[in-house]
Amino acid sequence: MVNYLVSLVIWTALYSLFALGLNLQWGFTGLINFGHVAFMTIGAYTTVLLSLQGVPIILAVLIGMALSALLGLLIGVSTLRLREDYLAIVTIGVSELLRLVALNEEWLTKGAFGVQNYPLPFQNLPKSIGFPLMVVLTLLAVFAQRELLKNLKKQWLESGQIKDKSYQPRKPISLIIWGVIASGIIIGIFVNGVLALSNYTYKAGLMVFLLLILTLIYTALDFLEQSPWGRILKAIREDEEIPKALGKNVFWYKLQAFMLGGAIAGLAGAFLAWQLSTIYPTNFEPLLTFNAWIIVILGGSGSNAGTLLGAIIFWAYDSLTRFVLPQLHIFNDSQLGAFRIMVIGLILMILMLWRPQGILGKKEELTLGK
C-alpha cells in the first residue's frame, strides 16, 4: 500500500508540473496549445538518450529543457503573429509529428521497442539517505501547509470584500472544508513518505526529488505571476491591444511564456521517463495534453494552486474508478474506459455551469464570464 501511494504521489506531482507549464501558456497568457505533450516528448527522449551516452543526468535534463524551449521558439515565431486557431492546429500537428518520428527513427529512439536501461537518479544510493530525505520532506510539508493557509486567508478576505453580485466568491464554510481536505492530503503524503523513506527505495527518493522540484517551480511561477511580467501576460490574455497601446512588445511576451511553459513540460518529460524506467512512443499520445487541459480547467485557469488541486482531483478520480468500478461488475473492460471518460466530461460540464472559472479560478480576472 505504501509503495502504491508513493507511485500515486509521483504521478500527481508529475502531472502538476506538466499542467503548470500549460497554465502559464493558457491560464496566464491565453495561448491555446493542444500539443503540449510535444515538449514532454523532447524532454524525455533528450534526457534518456544523452544520459545513455554518459552525459551527467542534471546536464541532460537542462539540455532537454533547452531543446523544449527551442521547440517553443520555433513554433511561436511561425504562429504567434497569426490567429489563435493556427497555434492550436500547429501545436497538435507538431506533437503528432514528434511521436511518429520517435516511432519510426529506430536508429535514434529504438522505435516501438522503446529506450531501456538508462541511468536513473537516486537509484544506487545507500539506505542511510532516507533520513536526510525525511528532513527535506518535512520542510516541504511545512511549506505546503503554509501556502495552503496563505491561499485560504486570501480567499477568505476576498469573500468579504467583493461587492459585485455577478461574482460568486468561495463561501467561508466551503473554504473550511477545502482547507481540512487539503491539510489531510498534505499530512497523508508526509506520513506515507516517511514510511517509504524508512525503508528507502528508488521510487521514494524520486518522489521527494519531484516534490522538491515542483515546489521550486510553483514558487517561481507564483513570483512571476505577481511581478510586472506576469501582469503583462494577464493583460495580453484579456485584450492584447491594451499592452500594445502602452508600448509593450506583445509578441515577445507571448514567445517568452510559450518557451518557458515548454521548458517546464520538458522537465516533466524527464520525470516521466524516470518514473516509467522505459519509454515508448505510445507514452506521448495526445491524451496527455488533454489530461493537462482537464487539470487546468478543473482547478482554475490562471491559478497555480488550482492546477495542483486539479491534478489531485484528477488522480484521485482515476485511482478510485480504476479499482472501485471493476468490483461492481457493471461494465466490461472496454465499457469501463468509455464510462470513466464520460464521467470526466460530465464533471467538466457541471463545473462550467457552476464555476466556469474553475474551483480556485477568479471569475473577475477571466473573460470567460463576461
Features:
370 residues, mainly alpha, two-stranded antiparallel ribbon, 14 helices, 2 strands, globular
Distance between the termini: 47 Å
Class of secondary structure makeup: mainly alpha
Question: What is the helix content?
Answer: over 70%
Strand order of the largest sheet: 1-2
Order of helical and strand elements: HHHHHEHHHHHHEHHH
* Main sheet record: 2 strands, antiparallel
Low-confidence residue ranges: none
Mean pLDDT: 87
- Estimate nothing, just give the exact number of structural domains: 1
Rg calculated over all Cα atoms: 21 Å
Task: State the total count of DSSP E strands.
Answer: 2
| Individual helix count | 14
Query: Shape from CA axes?
Result: globular
Strand content: under 5%
The gist of it:
By secondary structure, the chain is mainly α. It is built from 14 helices and two strands. The protein has one domain.
Structure description:
The chain is 75% helix and 1% strand. The chain is built from 14 helices and two strands, in the order H-H-H-H-H-E-H-H-H-H-H-H-E-H-H-H. Helix 1 (2-28) runs parallel beside helix 8 and helix 8 (202-226) packs across helix 9. The termini are far apart.
